[in-house]
Design brief:
Order of helices and strands: EEHEEEHHHEEHH
Helix content: 40-55%
Radius of gyration: 25 Å
Number of helices: 6
Shape: elongated
């Protein structure tokens, strides 16, 4: 078993605008606990701790991938998989020795889940208007750099599912004055029947 075996496989997930090169959503991950005696290069370590370093990385990455035809590159010692959707670029960044196919599965899950949630309208304006759904979808896919789910249908259903109600049939309750009077009469009738049985 390799010494650096870890569940932490994603260093960052980025959604950047290709028009004005702005950040739409960026999440950098770091392991909650570093292995004993390790430096900043352990699996799950945040490679860019400051915002300045993150923006410099994102700027260089956008310039490098803007005219690329492939979906996987090695940039700054990191494996980067990306997809262009409309006027945005979706990136998943992993360590230099990370499995490209696994990271590509994450980017496909993100792209397809966003297509389901946003009804095939994955552009900057729609992403900003539905920022909550986008953020929740990313949280369903990745948690602290650990890949949790890659099925876009399951991700979309978890993100868009309405909260469950404590009362099973709230829709059938009539809360008008007449409805409350009917409920009162029904309660009196049932109580009278119980009292006669005793």
């Amino acid at each position: 078993m390799p010494a650096n075996m870890s569940l932490f496989s994603v260093n960052a997930i980025l959604i950047l605008s290709t028009d004005d090169r702005s950040r739409i959503l960026t999440k950098y991950y770091s392991a909650p606990h570093a292995p004993p005696g390790s430096t900043t290069n352990h699996p799950g370590a945040n490679p860019y701790p400051s915002v300045k370093e993150q923006k410099a990385f994102e700027k260089g990455l956008l310039e490098k991938t803007n005219k690329q035809t492939s979906d996987v590159i090695l940039y700054d010692g990191r494996v980067v998989v990306f997809k262009m959707e409309g006027d945005v670029m979706l990136y998943v960044v992993g360590g230099g020795d990370e499995n490209e196919i696994m990271l590509f599965g994450v980017i496909l899950a993100l792209r397809d889940a966003l297509a389901i949630l946003l009804k095939n309208s994955t552009d900057k304006r729609t992403l900003v208007e539905n920022y909550d759904l986008v953020s929740l979808a990313i949280d369903e896919i990745i948690d602290d750099g650990i890949i949790l789910e890659t099925d876009p249908v399951i991700i979309a259903s978890r993100v868009s599912k309405p909260p469950t109600q404590d009362i099973t049939s709230v829709k059938n309750i009539d809360l008008s004055e007449q409805g409350l009077l009917n409920a009162w009469e029904f309660g009196k009738l049932k109580l009278a029947e119980r009292m006669r049985q005793l």
